[in-house]
Design a protein that fits this description.
This protein has 349 residues and is α/β, with parallel strands linked by helices. It has eleven helices and 16 strands. It has a six-stranded antiparallel sheet, sandwiched between helices. It starts with a strand and ends with a helix. The relative contact order is 0.12.
Length: 349
């Protein structure tokens, strides 16, 4: 049975919003996940969902690690909302799949039916219909599915590269915004604190920060376990490591000062996947410095009022998952660093 293609919709997908009216699809509670596409949409046969870390951690905790309960929760969310948007964290993730159909208004794109792509827009705004969940890879936040999804005209994507496995590309592209933003923010000589440094985004940010600070900079990784600290130092991904809990800001501050010659850092980057870590990101940063919240578990109310409450004049940046050329920058890191590639091959395949 062929796909029915309808008249042109809004480039941002507002024609798919069911409730409440007047908002974009990310803010909508429920969107239309009918897989008959509009003339400016792309239909994808979905292979895997990479649920974002904050969302998957929450779902896994609620399900007490039970695979069947995780499947039930994901199906329940998608059936209710028409998209994969965790009602607790508000976040989604991304997908990989194969182009099934292209609306006639997008025929000039560098795409053809059968191309494999990764979506670079959040599942929290992407119409999705899951027929079956085939597997849940609980250690890497990945869900293999038989499903379809729709990409809007404004939606960004990356063709999967030929020189690395799909799983490797998916793992990296899922967090592509973080290292690309790090490349823009970090300057030679900077001192940089990266919280949640043992995860995907954390390691990519460490690598990019090390590259940018040069011989006079200081890149400090914060992790929860000594074994993670030993690994990161062994891999050469940072200058120093502190072991702490990102929900204990005074401990993080004191250990950061100790690792940075008694001085506050120029930049902190939060890659944690749990709540209540805002002040551990803000407190160790000097006035006029930068706090980059890549974590989707961040409460920006807590960050803003918390900074005000301790008299910190810092520039706080929301972790926009998109920045220009972010996919290319992130994939290049895996091509450039044999160490990173081996780590990702080992952890995320």
């Amino acid at each position: 049975m062929g796909v029915k293609i309808m008249n042109k919709g809004c480039k941002y997908g507002t024609h798919r919003v069911l409730e409440p009216q007047g908002v974009l699809t990310q803010a909508a509670y429920k969107i239309d996940n009918d897989m008959n596409i509009y003339s400016n949409e792309i239909l994808i046969d979905v292979q895997s969902l990479n649920i974002d870390s904050a969302s998957f951690t929450q779902i896994k905790g609620e399900a007490e690690g039970n695979i069947e309960k995780i499947k039930e929760k994901i199906l329940s969310i998608v059936n209710e909302r028409g998209k994969m948007q965790n009602p607790v964290t508000g976040s989604g993730g991304m997908l990989i799949g194969t182009i099934a159909a292209i609306g006639e208004d997008l025929k000039d794109r560098d795409l053809k039916v059968g191309d494999k792509i990764a979506s670079l827009v959040s599942l929290s705004l992407t119409p999705l219909k899951i027929e079956e969940i085939l597997d849940v890879k609980i250690d890497i936040d990945r869900v293999d599915v038989k499903a379809q999804a729709v990409l809007f005209e404004s939606g960004i994507y990356a063709k999967l590269p030929n020189d690395m496995s799909e799983a490797l590309a998916l793992a990296a592209l899922d967090v592509a915004g973080a290292p690309a933003q790090t490349a823009k923010l970090v300057k030679p000589g900077d001192s940089v604190l990266i919280l949640g440094a043992a995860g995907k985004s954390g390691m990519l940010c460490l690598y990019e920060a090390m590259k940018r600070v040069g011989p006079t900079g200081n890149v400090i990784a914060m992790v929860r376990k000594q074994s993670q600290a030993d690994q990161l130092m062994g891999w050469g991904l940072c200058h120093k490591v502190i072991v702490s809990d990102a929900t204990t800001p005074i401990d993080v501050l004191n250990k950061t000062l100790e690792a940075n010659n008694g001085k506050e850092v120029d930049i902190s980057i939060s890659c944690v996947n749990i709540q209540n870590c805002e002040m551990s990101s803000i407190l160790p940063v000097k006035d006029g410095g930068i706090v980059y919240f890549f974590s989707m578990a961040t409460s920006f109310t807590k960050a803003a009022l918390g900074a005000e409450g301790i008299g910190k004049d810092v520039n706080m940046i929301i972790g926009n998952g998109y920045t220009k050329d972010h996919a290319e920058i992130t994939l290049w890191e895996l091509r450039e660093s044999e160490t990173l590639r081996q780590i990702f091959d080992q952890l995320y395949l």
